[in-house]
Structure formats: structure tokens, C-alpha cells
Write a structure and sequence with these properties.
Two copies of one chain form a homodimer. Chain A is α/β, with parallel strands linked by helices and 318 residues long. Chain A is built from 13 helices and seven strands. The first copy, chain A, has a domain of 212 residues: P-loop containing nucleotide triphosphate hydrolases (Rossmann fold).
Amino acid sequence: MKDWLTVQTGIRNGDKRAVARGLTWVEQGTDNGKRLVKSLFGSAGRAHVIGVTGAPGVGKSTLVNALALHLRQKGRYVGILAVDPSSPFSGGAILGDRIRMQDSVMDPGVFMRSLASRGHLGGLSRATFGAVTVLDAAGFDTILIETVGAGQSEVEIMQLAHTTVVVLAPGLGDDIQAIKAGILEIGQVFVVNKADRDGADHTVRSIRGMLTLATEHPDWMPPILKTVAERGEGVAALRETIDGHRQHLETSGIWHQFRRTQSEHVVGQVLEDWLLRHLNEARGWPQWPGWLAAIAEGRLDPERVAESVWHGAPYEED
Amino acid sequence: MKDWLTVQTGIRNGDKRAVARGLTWVEQGTDNGKRLVKSLFGSAGRAHVIGVTGAPGVGKSTLVNALALHLRQKGRYVGILAVDPSSPFSGGAILGDRIRMQDSVMDPGVFMRSLASRGHLGGLSRATFGAVTVLDAAGFDTILIETVGAGQSEVEIMQLAHTTVVVLAPGLGDDIQAIKAGILEIGQVFVVNKADRDGADHTVRSIRGMLTLATEHPDWMPPILKTVAERGEGVAALRETIDGHRQHLETSGIWHQFRRTQSEHVVGQVLEDWLLRHLNEARGWPQWPGWLAAIAEGRLDPERVAESVWHGAPYEED
């Protein structure tokens, strides 16, 4: 299935093989992938995109799995994207995740994919945006994005989510970590997982204290929930809270605004691609190496070169 | 000192107050900062930019300090940039670093600055590029960029360095961490710090093993050095190795090529700024909200809108 139109049609029909092929194109950043995202964007916009983030060891993946199973029981179609920005070269998470989610491989209502960085920094958040669009257009109504920690890349990726769930666990010193990583600012729902362990209530209290102090939440005060994901405890309540947040987004008009911002995003990606294409063309101009040398030596204003790139034709030397 | 030209002249004269002001503009991403980098770029290009990276706890900062002191003794002018991409909101590292480097505050041949992210992902590597340009143009001939870990942002920042030094320490399980984070691919020099501890030789051997296996180094096989930065041991040898790498870069023509790539970088930044300006203007057009809605509903091709943005004028409706 290499034909672009076949893949596009397949995705619209929810065909898993087509979805898999499309996601590969999107992840690799190929022209086919870009075309696909652009053409599918108008058919997307229905899915609730949920980000799940937290430090390693808090049981994030277990929670995502439990939540996905629960959502399936409710008849929802669930897409899962496991994003690993810490792996710039190897893309190592893929196999592990596949094994972990083996149970759901046979279920047509679940689609799981790992996304790793392919070197370029902005590439991963763009690939994630594209992957969300593909899954959304394929009819997955709930998309979970799982990502580690709260570095810069994660923050950018989490901006793709309507609802961000921050997962912590007792006794990991996570209360302090949370402030440090600025994780409080991005969470709309907080989960203390492994809540059967000592110190769970303490963790809940410190999150609550920090939320009250640190930030203003005029419309939505982030709830703090306790779960034991391994046994599925608290997962139904989490799902209800997440659905409640979607309700809030819709009532307040944020949901609508979010979609507009995404449209702008798509326009921005087209422009970015054009700019890169222009730059690549300029690299083939005979003047190019001389210009770069002249800029390096301070003899030529980079703006003059930039203008030529923008207009797609080398300026005439005086 | 708020006047742009005064700051620019001050930087060229190596005036520390001007450098400090310029770096603040650059870090904040202001128009003044962008103008400054553009105008100083032609006066830069002499400094050797050295990246120092490694996991927390390996003694990276101590090593950077020891290296800086040693370089000063050799009469070199040293700029230090401590980059903390893990801190998207708070910029928390600043005070700590200032205190740490107090000894060198009175020395006009050392300039130390912390850079933290200001929210935007690409912003930090751009700010680092700008800061390097400012320090370089101010006459600092050796610039050390210290950064934590080896996430995506770090990799992008390390691309600004001519020479990347990867620091490890015995007994931290760093050998395995190194592979995982893809750190092997970016290091031109490896340092096992805290080499007076047990297991130092083991760490050296595992790095060597991995280097031999993992990657091809046709021209430069990364040396592995042992240091005890706290006592300054091995620091002179490290400096010689780093100087040797610069020699290699110059002989092989890579140094020259590096500078060309940076010129291209500057042109790219100008283009990016123009694109953003165009987008911001477009947001003020009366058609804009309607267009975004139409894109979201699949009724309008984003390329058509992108074209209007590119040309700086809204297209006419049919």
C-alpha cells in the first residue's frame, strides 16, 4: 500500500494498515506524510487529545494502558502515542511498548504507536501533531499521548493535548521535582498513582498546596486524583474527570479556539516547508558559497541574501 | 546603556557591561538582540566553541570551572554559557551558577552566563547561538557551553560547538546511559571524571568498547581521558586534547565548513523572523478568523491561506 490516495482513503475508513503506513510517513517527515496531514486535517477535530506526563517510575504506562482498556469498555476508539523525546538517535522505546500493549493488538478499536525523535528537534512535535491528525481522521475519538518527564520538548508536545494529566507517585520526591520542572503550569488533572503506598496523602496535599499558591485557575481548578493503575483502581474516576474537562473546554469555548489554533498551525507548517524548499534551492545557486563566505567575513548583509531566498531568485550584484 | 549602537560598540571593545546587556537582549529574543547578533556575526568566527555535556552528578560544572581557570592561566579569554534546557519556566540555575563562579567575577578575561529557556523550544538554541556570537565578537577566544544530559535540546545546542566533550563518572551506570541517550554519536572527546574512584578504568574500557563498536570515526577517533576536576588533575591534558581537536578541524577543512554553516544559520534566522512577522500581520486581517474556521472544516486549502501570508496580502475570494 504505497499509493498516497489509497492510504488516505484507507485512513478515512479506519483501516489499520493504512493508518500504520500513514503514521510511518508522518514520523519520517516525508512529503507524502506532509500531504497526508494537510489533506486529512479537515476531517479531524473530533477526537479528545489527552496528554499523560510524569517522571519515569510513576507508573505512567500502566496508567495509560488501564485508561485505554477502560475507555474501550465504554465503547470508545482509542489511539495511543508513546512519545520519547529523550531518544534522539535510537528510537529505542518502540519494541518495549509494542510488547507491553500486545493485548490490544487484536482489538480494532485500539491503535498504539511509539514516536521517537529522528534527530531534528522540532520534528518530534510536528510528527506528533501529524500522528494525532491521522488517528483523529481515522475515527479514534480519544487519543492518549504518553510522554516522559517535563523537559522542553514535552511542553511543546503537551500543547497538542486538550487535557494534560500529570502523574506523580508517593515517595519519589516528586512534589519538589514537579515545581522544578514547571509541571504545575501544564497540568489540568493531577494523578497520584501507586496510591496504596505510604505517603500518597502527603503527595496529594503538597500538590494541592502548590496549586493554590503557584498559579491562578479562574475557570478550572485542577483536580487531584488517586489511582492504583496496576489494579485499575481510580481509573473510572479519572476517565470521568477527563470527560468533565472536555465538557469544560466546550462550554467555555476553549475547545473551539483550540481548533482554530491548530488551523493556524497547519498554515504555519506549509509556510515552513516552503521556506525550507526555497533555502534548498538557494543552496544550488552558483553565488551561494561566495555569499556565505562574505557573510562570515562581515562583507555582506545576511538580509540581502535572505531576500533572494524569499523571492526565489538571486539578487543582481551591484 | 540602552542604546543599541553603544552596546554594539561596547561589545566589540570587550566591555563586560555591554556584553551583559547584549546577552540579556539575546536571551529575551528581543528585536535589539536579533539586530545585534546579525550585525556582530561578521566580527565573530575566531572563538573555539567547546560543548561540555553529561548527566547530573558527574562533576561537569567543576570540570568546566577547572578548565576555565587553566585556560586563563594560559592567557586565553574564556566565555562560559551554562545552558539549562530542563527548566522551561523558572530559569532556576542562574543564581547557583553565579555563586559558583564568584572567583572569576573580578577577572576581565572570564565571562559567565546562565541561559534558561523562555518557554519556546527553538528559542534556547537560538539564544545560545546569539550568546556565542556576542562573546566571540567581544574577543573571548574560547567559549565553553555547559549543558545537562543529552536530550533533544542538548543535541541541538551541541551542534553549535566545534568540539563536544562528554563527561562521565565511574559507578553511575553511565556506560549504559550513554548508549541509551545516543551520547556517543555527539562526543569528540570523552572524559571520565572523578577518576580516583573505583571503577574508573572499567568506565574507560566500556566507553572504548562502545566507540569501537558503535560508530565509525574515519578521521578522528575520540580520545578518552581521566580527570579529577576537584583537584585539577588531568585538566591540562584535556585542554591539549581539545586544542588538538581544533587543529584537526582546521587541517581537515571542517572548521571552515562550520563557519559557512553558521552563515546559513543566520540567513535562516532572518527568514524565520520575516515569516513570523508576516504571520502576525495576517492575524490582523478581517478574513483571518473565517479562513481558520474554513480550514478546520475542510472547506479551504491551507496552501491558499499560506500563499496570502507569504505575499503579505489576502487573496481575493472567487
